[in-house]
Amino acid sequence: MNIFRLTGDLAHLIAIIILLHKIWKSRSCAGISGKSQVLFALVYTTRYLDLVTSYVSIYNTFMKFVFLATSYATIYLIYVKFKATYDHNHDTFRIEFLILPSLALALLINHYFNFLEVLWTFSIYLESVAILPQLFMVSKTGEAESITSHYLFALGSYRALYILNWIYRYATEGHYDLIAIVAGVVQTVLYCDFFYLYITKVLKGKKLQLPA
Amino acid sequence: KRFPMPHDEL
């Protein structure tokens, strides 16, 4: 554990809390892509199957439970409790175009060919693109509420901080995982355009609005 | 490197 990994995990946790709090407080999931949330639940489910096979630390186990539980709670809020407020007309990204290539790539490029390892690899590939339905939704409506922008910023920062963590780990332990690194870089790059808008607009008190 | 290795990150 190092400071980059810890702040990365905290950014991830904060992102989830912002999202749940926003939906709960406003009693609405307007502007939130249910499809991205379904993909995240799939990511955590396939990655954390190792909860039963390998123990790392109480911290890891606790965080895995939190990520799993909150991802399903989010889906429940969007698709059941506040279903009426779900903006499905704008949430039209075809998630099979992300799931199937991620699965195919995981079958082809992995560290080891067994069930758990392929699913872990799939979760890494899928996570890198899971935000696309949400970004697509923002681009389709041309704007995002500030709170949704804060959520996206926290969620994007998490993998960016993990990249610093990987550099640090390589320098100090010689440890590296190419699959996680390449996917993590792709994931972070996808947020770059958003980061730019966030810093130049949202932080200056303006609404995140895309140029027409 | 030895595989399968345990994944120690989240």
UniProtKB/TrEMBL annotation, chain A:
GO terms for cellular component: endoplasmic reticulum membrane. One of its GO terms (biological process) is protein transport. The keyword Ribonucleoprotein does not apply. Keywords: Endoplasmic reticulum, ER-Golgi transport, Membrane, Protein transport, Receptor, Transmembrane, Transmembrane helix, Transport. Its main location: endoplasmic reticulum. GO terms for molecular function: ER retention sequence binding. PROSITE patterns: ER_LUMEN_RECEPTOR_1 (PS00951), ER_LUMEN_RECEPTOR_2 (PS00952). The chain crosses the membrane at residues 62-80, 92-113, 119-138, 150-168, 174-199. PANTHER family: ER LUMEN PROTEIN RETAINING RECEPTOR (PTHR10585). This is ER lumen protein-retaining receptor.
